[in-house]
Amino acid sequence: MKVTIFGTGYVGLVTGTCLAEVGHDVICVDIDVSKVEGLNIGIIPIYEPGLESMVRDNHSAGRLRFSTDGATAIEHGETIFIAVGTPPDEDGSADLQYVLAVANTIGRHLTQSTVIVNKSTVPVGTADKVRATIAAELAIRALDIKFEVVSNPEFLKEGDAVNDCMRPDRIVIGANSDGAVEQLKRLYAPFNRNHDRVVAMDVRSAELTKYAANAMLATKISFMNELANIAERVGADIEHVRKGIGSDPRIGWHFIYPGAGYGGSCFPKDVQALAHTARQYDYEARLLNAVEAVNESQKGHLFELIQRHYGADLSGKTFAMWGLAFKPDTDDMRAAPSRTLLQQLWGAGVEVRAYDPEARHEAERIFGERRELVLCDSAFEALQGADALIVVTEWKQFRSPDFTDLKLALSGKVIFDGRNLYEPTEVERAGISYYGIGRGR
Ligand code: UGA
Asked: What positions constitute the catalytic site (predicted)?
């Protein structure tokens, strides 16, 4: 089938590539000329395992093209996806200007009956706005072309996006007609083997489903972080508690890891946007507000532990930091807990020697050259002469260090483990003081 995708960010690029991989004829459109030029010669703007080779293979097979020409791409697509960014506005609401700009372009160039699919995470009611925008443009052109706007939210995770897209656990389709559902079912048929993963519903329910999923996951994390703070005070170990509750299938093992707080481009933004939507409908979402507030304060928790150990005056100290990305297997540092901690440490006169397997360039882009940040080429190099090690992201390569070597490299013998990667007794046996999250034994 012929598919057009607006936006070559995470969602657009991964979706377009996976659709091409199963044989569809895909054109991805972006207004960023250099990005499009790069993609056409195989340069991928993001770090995502497995994506680069898939883009190259499908591009050379002629099934995946990149273009800045919206008009031609609109003519091409029987199905047109909108997968552009929805950055947060000052008040926490999602900024729809890019989505509506695409809707406008579609309205100006549409020539045939088409299904338009909202894949960006957008507030409830956005499909109606997209429909109205396209209809207004068609009215100006005095054209009566049939089109439908469908909500088909994306549930992919950074770092595992290709896998999530190729093997979805559900395909949510929100449409107001059976015809549009059938068209998307045909498009997704190659991903829908063994059992039917399509969950069809009305448009508004589909829009809300996306926020519900992310808000539920964020709630689990904030709940565990709150519990970790209680554990710390009452002399319990949250890691035992986690295992004790995760074994209950009603609770489950996923997303109950306490840590330095959730980051990334989705959870913080989506929780706030959903609370904002609720407020617009005269409902104060107290739980969502609390989820976000707990997360904000959790991002400061490692700094509190550091001050608990050293006292308030940290000036002149040097700390090693392992991990900058908001989670492993990505170079993304958006809303990353590392950023909050870096600002707090710098504010206290601390120098940081940081290592991240992928986010070095991103850190250089965000912070530029500065004396108080040394970006190192290896985890070991970051330790040299540092007063303590702070672990912020749970990259696999940080999981089982040789604590004897680590102790030799560190000047001060302290670890602040923001992801509970280590067994406190093992670290302490090596002669290193240990602080974790919620480990108040
Ligand atoms: C999230 C969702 O997991 C995806 O299903 C969704 O499609 C995506 O948002 C989106 O809306 O586009 P993502 O932001 O890539 O995906 O990352 P996650 O793996 O969900 O992690 C989010 C944050 O939660 C990370 O900072 C991670 O460290 C933290 N986290 C996760 C915890 O602190 N504890 C946990 O137990 C799990």
From this structure: 266
Residue 256 marked as a ligand binder: yes
Interval 251-300: pLDDT, tens: 999 999 999 999 998 999 999 999 999 999 999 999 999 999 999 999 99
Indicate yes or no: pTM above 0.90.
Answer: yes
Note if 266 is an active site residue.
yes
Tell me the pLDDT tens digit for each residue of 40-59. Answer: 999 998 888 999 999 999 99
For 259, the token pair is 């840590």
Instruction: Give, using CA atoms, the residue closest to atom 22 of ligand 1.
Output: 262
* DSSP, res 46: S
219 is in an annotated binding site: no
* Secondary structure string (H, E, C) spanning 39-50: HHCCCCCCCCCC
> CB count, 10 Å around CB of 30?
22
Q: Does 255 appear as a known binding residue? A: yes
Q: Which has the closest alpha carbon to 148: 199, 203, 209?
A: 203
For residue 395, which of 429, 357, 363 has the smallest C-alpha distance?
Answer: 357
- Domains in the chain and their CATH numbers? 2-201 (3.40.50.720), 202-441 (3.40.50.720)
- In the structure, how many helices (H) and strands (E) does the chain have? 18, 14
Ligand 1: residues with CB < 6 A are 121, 154-158, 214, 217, 221, 255-257, 259, 262-264, 266-267, 326-327
Three-class SS of residue 271? helix
